[in-house]
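Lab channel / #folding
Pinned by the channel admin:
"Please post every new chain as: sequence first, then the structure tokens as a reply. Keep commentary short and put observations after the output so the thread stays searchable."

First post following the new format, from NK:
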Amino acid sequence: MAHAATAGENYITNGKSAMSWLGTLDHKRIALMYFVTVMLFFFIGGCFALLIRLKLFTPGLSLSLLGHTVTADIYNQFMTLHGTIMVFMVIIPGIPAVFGNFFLPIHIGAKDVAFPRLNLMSYYVFVTGAIIAFCALGFGGVDTGWTFYTPYSIRTYNGVIFMTLGAFVMGMSSILTGLNFIVTTHKLRAPGMTMNRMPLFVWAIYATAIIQVLATPILAITLLLLVAEKTLGIGIFDPKIGGDPVLFQHFFWFYSHPAVYIMILPAMGIISELISTFSRKVIFGYTAIAYSSLAIAAVSFFVWGHHLFVSGQSEWAGIIFSFITMLVGVPTAIKMFNWVATMYKGQVSLQSPMLYAIGFLFLFFIGGVTGIMLACVGFDVHVHDTYFVVAHFHYVMVGGTLMALMGAIFYWFPKMYGKMHNEVAAQISWLFIFLGFNVTFFPQFILGQLGMPRRYFDYLPEFQSLNRISTMGSWLIGTGFLIGLATVIHGLMFGKPAGNNPWGSRSLEWTTTSPPPTENFDKTPIITAGPYEYR
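Reply from TO:
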């Protein structure tokens, strides 16, 4: 039975029982359930990252955990769990499922998403997939890496079946979420909210949803084929029985490189909101940023082959994929230029969300430039499967997506909960994360250039000094995230009332109350001006 709302009631107070949350159809409550779940997985995946770096502090270091020595096999399982959790359970669902769910309807003046029941279902499908994936731990674990490369993943432990089926189920959740967002964007916009008046965050989520719907089925089919070959002995990827392992790489990366943009496009949408708000300016080049999101989504489907430069593919294929990979830098550079232009001569306020936005610009720039370097066939062959690739990937994904995620948490915290966090603590959190990130991953560019392979359990003594610096940086990152967690918890318990618009933003979500009412607005807004110019 629906809970009757009363005057002054908001989405948090509208029903307080456990079932009112677990069975809710309110997109905001579903977003919070996603948030708690994703943060739990983030903590687990982060712990595995710290264990990996601790093992690599010194060559030959013997590390014990719960009375068990971390052998090469256990180390490989840590590596696999870290990658799988962070990619499939944190970075891919993090921003769309949490902030997309919460703010996309509010940004377009809607009461909810188009399919509320499908929205709730997508959350439980996601949790079910994660549980199935963790079942792999009870069946020998998985040590294939998060890419599950064949033929090894076919010939190794049965835990691979649970891990890949878990990823398959979580992919279904991603498809459901993407469908919901596409229909919501097209059908539920408030009167006057044309496509060219939508906030840039909505454009980013919309482009991401298109990739989710079109690319995720490819991964689903690939993982099902892997499970079928492993259980039925059908020759698809294993050369022993007539399969082709490179075919798996083509299938996997046809999804997984667009997945990079599933991770980063929502982060770019957040950065557009933060830079406009804290520069006190209308975003520079709105149309260019909006359509560059669609351009990135389109080009992302044609660049997967740069992961296969050393696989034996033809030289002409390598040249074509190299060119297209560089081409994707054009719409990305448009965004970078327009963000900097927005800040130029603006009244820049260095509050914690803006610090995370600036951190994003710095780290993502390094990730983007090194991505262009890796698009060059000759250079890629030299650093392929080295720590250079690890550093590049983390500068884009962690330095990009997680920086934007933290910025979004502190930016929208007052709107979501109606309370203010401790701003000084949030800035200290940023400082630890930003410095720690660079101390951790910049030395890995040098390690990769010197030839240190990635995913190795041990290494030569000449790599020790840089690995020690990298490990100490990981401790700084962990400290920064713990400070951020403490800041959020303190704000929830002791934060001062935020008011409806503490940042002085001009986008639509700040025109409603904090926290928002169950149906987002007291009455449907009428949009009469362009984005960021509502008042």
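NK: Residues 71 and 269 are 42 Å apart (CA to CA).
TO: also worth noting, Residues 1-7 have pLDDT under 50 and may be disordered.
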